[in-house]
Amino acid sequence: MIEVYGHGGDLRTASETFGLPEGEFIDFSANMNPFGPPPGVVRWLAEGEAASLLAHYPDPACRSLRRQLAAKYGVDEACVWIGNGAAELIDLALRVLAPATTLIARPCFVEYEQAAVKAGSRLREYRMPAEEGFALTPGDAFLRAADESDAIVLGHPNNPTGRLPDPELLEAVRARLSPGQTLVLDEAFLDFHEDERRFSWLRRAASDPQVIVLRSMTKFYAVPGIRLGFVVAVPETIERIRALQTPWSVNAFAQRIGELAIGDEAYEANTRGWLREERPWLEERLKEAGLRVCGGGVTNYVLAEIPPRTGWTAAKLQAALGRRGILIRDASRFAGLGSGHIRLAVRLRSDNERLVSALKQTLNG
Ligand SMILES: Cc1ncc(COP(=O)(O)O)c(C=O)c1O
User: Fold this and answer.
1) How far apart are the C-alpha atoms of 93 and 205, rounded to whole Å?
2) Which SUPFAM superfamilies does its entry note (predicted)?
3) Cα–Cα distance between 128 and 341 in angstroms, integer?
4) Each residue of 123-181: pLDDT tens digit?
5) Ligand 1 centre distance from Cα of residue 226 (Å)
6) Strand order in the sheet with 341-345
7) pLDDT above 90 as % of the chain
8) Model pLDDT, residue 215
9) What domains, with CATH codes, occur in the chain?
10) CA 225 to centroid of ligand 1, rounded, Å
């Protein structure tokens, strides 16, 4: 198992487990943009200018990056705050809200639960129905649970299903919020979506005190090593998040890399164009290999299930592929999923072909 610390993408554990050097794995267990960081970032690192940042404290308020993000998304700078990855901001948001009860819709990103528990919150869980492909649609049970919760935390889109909650459901949840209740939307993967602007609640969060939107910059710009994310909320909430955050939490390299990354429109268009083609291609090949694909996904990862009749479990398949240098996510570890669920990042075609061929050989061989 490679999820000893709760997540995919842990090459050190993979290396220790499967006996291969870290650099020899093709990693489908973490969901990064397979094009790697934008060229401007790579160039800047190669030019050596980064060294000049070492001897000074970073800007404690990340002013340049916040200004750029505010301009890019059309919100006020006072509504944006930067964090050491979206992971830090999930934690800070829940600590600021200190909700007595937090509602999550399983299966979902494990940090929602962990952050809620750390913030002293009681957890309420709604199970998205497997028979409906884990769709989160307007339904009485979810809305009732939302009515009785102080914070409602949803992946938008969700991890590991890759699906967006039904927009009507979100509207219904928002419309029913009483004072003191907050809807937290984690849009860590929304920038991979071609209609990002249409679906995003980012601008609403800048004017609605009962909505908080979290964004990651590590996935779309393929820079998980530096940790970078941002939150959009009304200025009063941003101020409370700032007050709880450790000073200089976002280092100077992360700030500069964020500034260089977000201006590259060609990189963004190229990434979205690739996913438009590659996701359906991979889904079809996975079905041919005998897997059940969870439909309706919009992200750069696919949730799939190994049929029980094959005799394979996700854990067994992860081990078999890991020994061949291919890392997949054992999604059975997500509460709400079964022993056959796996999650696969969509990568570039040649890697995806290697994955499909290894899957076919392993499952059918
Ligand atoms: C749904 C979701 N939200 C947030 C995060 C955290 O992202 P970051 O790398 O910016 O901390 C992850 C990381 O896997 C994620 O899957």
Assistant:
1) 13
2) PLP-dependent transferases
3) 15
4) 999 999 999 999 998 888 999 999 999 999 999 999 999 999 999 999 999 999 999 99
5) 13
6) 292-293, 301-305, 341-345, 329-330
7) 94
8) 98
9) 11-30+266-364 (3.90.1150.10), 40-262 (3.40.640.10)
10) 12
